[in-house]
Please model this.
Amino acid sequence: MASKTLDDLFHETLKDIYYAERQIVKALPKMARGAQDPKLKAAFEKHREETEGQIDRLKQVFEIIGKRAQGKTCPAIDGIIEEGEEILDEFKGTPALDAGLLAAAQAVEHYEISRYGTLRAWAQQLGHRDAVTLLEQTLAEESKTDEALTTLAKTAVNTAAQKAA
Ligand SMILES: [Fe+2]
Ligand SMILES: [Fe+2]
Model:
């Protein structure tokens, strides 16, 4: 078996998050359509646009390491998105729907934050300075999105969810 290196690990993880982002960009419009609170809807729509930019950044990172942009099925993100779809289904028309969707979206963000944090550290280690900058930009967007969702949960969505149907 050929020996594998940190370069290989970086490349594999890049394929993982590239696949994940492409699934997320498809899932966000469904979540936006499902959300009842206009602010939550707007947050999902805004993040869909950001996600398109993030996919472009990933393509640039592939270029930096001299590889073709290519995804690799990531069962973790598939599972997280599936859970979000379950909530859409099972809580449709109920006051708790938005709280469930918001929580599902935060699970996605936390997955991304974990991946981008790792990729940034490895890019640093491998001396891909331009990749570090690109990955940091995305990491900052994911963190900001997560924080905005927390604020929305605390200020509106969780209270609305508690109301009787
Ligand atoms: Fe993302
Ligand atoms: Fe995200």
